[in-house]
Amino acid sequence: MKKKQNITLKALAKTLDLSISTVSRALNDHPDISWETKERVKTLADKHNYVPNLFASGFRSHRTHILGVIVPNISHYFTTTILKGVLEEGENLGYRVIISESKNDEKKQSEMLRTMVQFGVDGVLMALSRKTKSVDEILKVMNRLPLVMFDKVSGKIPCTEVVINEEEAAYNAVEHLINTGKRRIAIIKETEGSYNSEKRYQGYLRALKEYHIPVDEKIVLSTEDISLAKGRMMANILLSLKTRPDAIFAITDSAAIGVIKALNKFKVKIPEEIAVVGFSNSASSTIINPSLTTVDQPGNKIGRTAVKYLIDEIENPKEDMFSKTIEIKTNLIVRDSSFKA
Amino acid sequence: MKKKQNITLKALAKTLDLSISTVSRALNDHPDISWETKERVKTLADKHNYVPNLFASGFRSHRTHILGVIVPNISHYFTTTILKGVLEEGENLGYRVIISESKNDEKKQSEMLRTMVQFGVDGVLMALSRKTKSVDEILKVMNRLPLVMFDKVSGKIPCTEVVINEEEAAYNAVEHLINTGKRRIAIIKETEGSYNSEKRYQGYLRALKEYHIPVDEKIVLSTEDISLAKGRMMANILLSLKTRPDAIFAITDSAAIGVIKALNKFKVKIPEEIAVVGFSNSASSTIINPSLTTVDQPGNKIGRTAVKYLIDEIENPKEDMFSKTIEIKTNLIVRDSSFKA
DNA sequence: CTGAAAGCGCTTACAG
DNA sequence: CTGAAAGCGCTTACAG
């Protein structure tokens, strides 16, 4: 084994001619210990570069100071911004973070959850994988460990949830289109209403309703596995309609970019003939031409907030579990695809 | 504390009327134990859903089965593909992964390294933060722990390194431009020669040399903190030259995209007047118009390979440290920015 | 084939 | 103010 041993409490105690208990307490600033002793101990510890074996203390105290995070896909830009927030805030509060990818596989998700529990994490942060049918495994884990969910959540799990104001964000996006004079606004959403898709659709409906614009089912399009390619397909469908829409709201940036690519191909003028709005403010939204109007989701803040709530639950355990939803505000970023100055 | 206790060896031993030692050995398939006993033990363990407390065994055996990963920036797409590979292969081999971001801050990087050691990870995987001046801290860690570096490496650290064939990749990219008839090929690289930038520049030089094209310093541009904005600036400079280049090789995709944006703005025909090649095959390379010819870096493979070597070093420790460089092959992806079919 | 016992490095109730 | 001792859950050399 290559691992060189760190200096231990025992060794310190020996050279100081004190008991291990006293050294331990001195290092932990226990009030019982005299100022003098503390000084002596700390000086020697510093000199020898003493670092406590977190493993031993964790084992002893049943606390590992590790948080587990489970996300469907680590390479989504939005996910990485959340993870950044989690890492930063976690570190600030003295926790390390273990990350797992569920790859939108429900079985894998359950497995990971179990491994994390077995591993001894102090709490779990998770975004549900798409199409999670059964939440039994998750509920089981909740009996043992604090759990906070973010982004992709489920009403069936009574825990703290940190999400963005999906409905309002969509409402704002559609309202913006209405304010620029658009009246025939199409939406591209997911077939199997995920939490996010459903909320955004509701925001769309509310905006239309409040501005007394009738809903036309012909321009409400749904697709599975929403993507750039699907966005392009949907745009083709919309272009083939007798009465084309004058705006398209896609509930993801990638679909919106697919839409723009299709419109560009057919030389449809954006935004004059058809305006486009996406959702996420992904990196690509400023690469595409025209640049994409989209909803900025503050991932960092979501991550930080989720961690804060989780650590609070870890450090101040409460007996009863109950749902609590924290909504993080988003911001519509207006670019050329919907408005030309 | 909310944590419900898992069933322990002790409890199992009691109900089976066996010693703890025997139960432990039975579960670990120790050859000494009779087949019958093993069966009895395993059956009961399954029934009670026994999971070993990894923390206790880790503490005992000085092995945590955690790997630490330190990367400069978790939201670079290329980095996430590497991390994916690390997570996948790590999981396969029974390791969990702790991820940290150094944010290209040398001090932070050292801190993280120390925390990881203290924490008890079994090995560390890292990509150096930009402009790392001193490797002392890293060398110190190497005395205690296996270390494997990837992507951003340093010749000063005698450890296994997993990198892509930077020089060859750049050579191939430039050769491709030459093959399409280009002769006046500009390069946009980094000022302070990072490992990657330097290697790519060497590949550029070798290609020119082998095809007997003289190097013209006027079209060898360097910039700090290479980025989209910088790419755009460099393109403007190149456009203002008396004799414009007929191709631009940017050593990152973002710079290449900045170049394309600038060329588009001035209605320069791509690739007829000026061809553009980038490096990374980032998501944006197919969003930009024209789509970007670029070098695909197999991040997943890099991650998997790095983990394999690391775990091998953990499980089969050798006394002497020595450098070993594993090169992963890249692939040039030809798109519209350099060649129109 | 099985068991008793030591020990990993630390914390903490108990005693003085 | 300080110390002796138990114990967290497991593994493993030693003994039989």
From TrEMBL, chains A, B:
GO molecular function annotation: DNA-binding transcription factor activity; transcription cis-regulatory region binding
Protein name: Transcriptional regulator, LacI family
Alphabetized Pfam families for the sequence: LacI, Peripla_BP_3
Keywords recorded for this protein, A-Z: DNA-binding, Transcription, Transcription regulation
PROSITE patterns: HTH_LACI_2
Keyword DNA-binding recorded: yes
Domain HTH lacI-type, residue spans: 7-61
Organism superkingdom: Bacteria
